[in-house]
From TrEMBL:
Secretion signal span: none
Gene symbol of the encoding locus: LOC109115767
Ranges where the Reverse transcriptase Ty1/copia-type domain occurs: 3-108, 114-205
InterPro entries membership: DNA/RNA_pol_sf, RVT_2
A Pfam family assignment: RVT_2
The organism's place on the tree of life at top rank: Eukaryota
Protein name per Swiss-Prot or TrEMBL: Uncharacterized protein LOC109115767
Length: 374
């Protein structure tokens, strides 16, 4: 979107000095701003409200489960937009629908709520938009619907159409006849370059075997470097489940890290050097069934006092893990339903603790068992 934040309308009274080039201003005269201006604290919120309202006027429905996703459905098509600030990704089943949406965005100007997922459904199609600030992804069942909404957005806000999505928020999207592959190769290479490890020798493990962090080792002279690197690794974790555990461990020490922690993060970078293109593959033949596995590392750290609700047994810890996994599965199933996809039920959830399983299936145990709250 071009000049996205200028499209919003202000609800508050905001006064400003006249521009230097405005010669008709009287002494001590100020201007009342009716529209959003860059630099005001409320501009991103007002842009979101305006953008959501226009999408809903076009027929999109905002997802109740992901506020960046907008969907328009019919019985024969689906159109979706993914929005990030003023960047919009559009996809759908018909090219003509995609063009209509693009034309709409090009010509015109969201929901009184701060949501990012919008859907537009009919008996034969669905159209979805996922919004992140001014970045928008659009998808749908008909190309014609996608084109319509893109045209609508262009007419309303004047957008930059990136055609088929190749990059979105640092994620590379590659399509093929067998499915879609998502990775963050460029993001990995940028991290390696920023930390001077682009020419490092690759290693095959994300963390040295038997790695233990010592509190007696000297602290870093530049602690902000560690925080910055861990933050970037956390974002990379979106498409790299192979580094999930080690990044989770390293992120626990952002307020108190030593040379051991720093060397461990560099070890992760050397591992990434050998696997920069690794990511997630979504097969076109996938039946979209859900399956989950959960586990708990009970009493792994007895002295941190991080948990406000302490599990007093491995069974209780595993039971909490089950409960939180069920919440995640429920959210994912809601998102799929927004796209008119109903995963096969029941959804398999695997746990390796028999005591926890007995608690879940027994209608009497749960009455005396404390529910998970943290």
């Amino acid at each position: 979107m071009y000049n996205a934040f200028l499209h919003g309308y202000l609800d508050e009274e905001v006064f400003m000095l006249p521009p230097p080039s405005y010669t008709k201003a009287k002494p001590n005269e100020v201007c009342l701003s009716k529209r959003s201006l860059y630099g005001l604290k409320q501009v991103s919120r007002q842009w979101n409200v305006e953008f959501c309202a226009k999408l809903q006027a076009y027929g999109f429905v905002q997802s109740a489960h992901d506020h960046c996703l907008f969907i328009k459905k019919t019985s024969t098509s689906i159109l979706a937009l993914l929005v990030y600030v003023d960047d919009v990704l559009v996809t759908g089943t018909h090219e003509s629908e995609i063009k209509k949406v693009k034309q709409f965005l090009h010509e015109k100007h969201g929901s009184a709520h701060y949501h990012c997922l919008f859907t537009k459904k009919t008996s034969t199609s669905i159209l979805a938009l996922l919004v992140y600030v001014d970045d928008v992804l659009v998808t749908g069942t008909h190309e014609s619907e996608i084109k319509k909404v893109k045209q609508f957005l262009h007419d309303t806000f004047t957008i930059k159409d990136m055609e088929y999505a190749k990059y979105f928020l640092g994620l590379k999207i590659a399509r093929g006849s067998d499915g879609t592959y998502v990775n963050q190769r460029k993001y990995v290479l940028d991290i390696l370059q920023d930390f001077g490890l682009l020419g490092a020798k690759p290693i095959v493990t994300s963390l040295p075997k038997g790695q233990k962090f010592s509190s007696t080792v000297s602290y870093l002279d530049e602690p902000e470097k560690y925080c910055k690197l861990v933050g970037r690794l956390l974002y990379l974790n979106l498409t790299r489940p192979d580094i999930s555990y080690v990044v989770q461990q390293l992120s626990q020490y952002v307020h108190s890290h030593t040379q051991d922690h720093w060397q461990a993060t560099l070890h992760v970078l050397k591992y990434l050097k050998g696997t920069p293109s690794r990511g997630l593959f979504f097969s076109s033949n996938n039946n979209l069934s859900l399956e989950a596995f959960c586990d708990a590392d009970w009493a792994a750290c007895k002295e941190s006092c991080k948990s406000l609700t302490v599990s007093r047994s491995s069974a209780e810890a595993e039971y909490r893990s089950l409960a939180f996994t069920v919440c995640e599965l429920q959210w994912i199933s809601y998102i799929l339903q927004d796209f008119q996809v109903s995963p096969p039920l029941p959804i398999p959830l695997w746990c390796n603790n028999m005591a926890a399983l007995h608690i879940t299936i027994n209608s009497v145990f749960h009455k005396t068992y404390k529910a998970p709250t943290d």
